[in-house]
Amino acid sequence: MTSRRGPYAKGTAKRAEILSVALEVVAEKGCHNASNREIAERVGLSQAGLMHYFGSREELYMAVLRARDERDSAAYWEPDPSFAGFLRVIENNTRVPGLVQLYVEFSAEASLGKHPAHEFFRERYEWVHQRSVESVRAAQASGEFGPHIDADLVADVLIAAADGLQQQWLLDRSIDMVARLQAMWAGMATLSRLDAEIDPVTAEATPTE
Amino acid sequence: MTSRRGPYAKGTAKRAEILSVALEVVAEKGCHNASNREIAERVGLSQAGLMHYFGSREELYMAVLRARDERDSAAYWEPDPSFAGFLRVIENNTRVPGLVQLYVEFSAEASLGKHPAHEFFRERYEWVHQRSVESVRAAQASGEFGPHIDADLVADVLIAAADGLQQQWLLDRSIDMVARLQAMWAGMATLSRLDAEIDPVTAEATPTE
């Protein structure tokens, strides 16, 4: 998000305040119980006033998810752009079930081409995928993964498993998502190292795509 | 589904016809474009008549998903209760995008406790989980998986990856879900065999849970 000056500064500040409050309300109550009225009240606006900043409920939710991504990424994944950083994002999700609910539902709805959030989720997927590929490359550089591995494939599996586990976790909060992702990751790592041993190449960890 | 006799027989036959048509319409058009009107027309009923058999849209969709599960399971997973059988179900899904859409959306919606389909998806999850655990045990018996592996954990990861990949596939039909699931499975298998080599036990493939 680029910050704006002059006549827009006040509007930008209010937008940021609304987002912050919407994040709180959705995290606490879930997307079905987080009413526009409650969000509007907490920021001292009417519902019409709220819709002045975010034209629709869909637009507000997209902004909430984007703000969540930016916050979590800055807190966990950017300082440690490895699989461990990814796991910290997932671990943090267990503290905000409402946002997990919003993500699971909204992303499922948006998988249809004509949904207003379809393009948002496509772009978001590209972003998470690229970050995950970087985590795989970091693991190759450290020797955890062997050099012969399709990093895009591992990234797709990692994101799929994390998405699916969040849905399972909504049905049964006792599921340990982190332990399951660690086992999946360790399996792919082991497989990729064995492959390197069977078919050794130069010592450089150059991915083979 | 138990079949009924006497006065119910005609109703049961009509229900089965409606389900079969609804499966077709949803598979072709997706759940958003599959209107009750079209389903009703194709089976020669009014919309009110349709609702006589299925009290609500949610109830009809639950029945559609149940019928899909029964059909696919009988065609692919029951004859081969292994991971290969599971993969055939996923492979078949690529031919019915509308049903994948229905499954992804409806299961996400239903993750909330008070949704009418919540209990249906909890039970469905238990069923798929149990079948997947059996696939892991079959792989242990054949030596593909080592004896020391938490079959429940592998089943959770398998189902999560399959669910997440279906969602990715809705956004990008070029994703090869089967290849990704095979890599994930091979990784967990390799890991479990190594574990068995490091910590050998009796030759019997007894899972350690």
3D structure, described in words:
Chains A, B: This is TetR/AcrR family transcriptional regulator. Chains A, B: Residues 12-72 form the HTH tetR-type domain. Chains A, B: Residues 35-54 bind DNA. Chains A, B: InterPro entries: BetI_C, Homeodomain-like_sf, HTH-type_TetR-like_transc_reg, HTH_TetR, Tet_transcr_reg_TetR-rel_C_sf. Chains A, B: It comes from Microbacterium capsulatum. Two copies of one chain form a homodimer. With 209 residues, the first copy, chain A, is an all-alpha fold. Chain A has a domain at 58-198: Tetracycline Repressor, domain 2. Helices cover 70% and strands 0% of the residues of chain A. Chain A is built from nine helices and no strands. Chain A has helices at residues 9-29, 36-42, 47-53, 57-77, 83-93, 97-109, 118-141, 151-171, 177-198. The two termini of chain A are 33 Å apart. Residues 200-209 of chain A have low confidence and may be disordered.
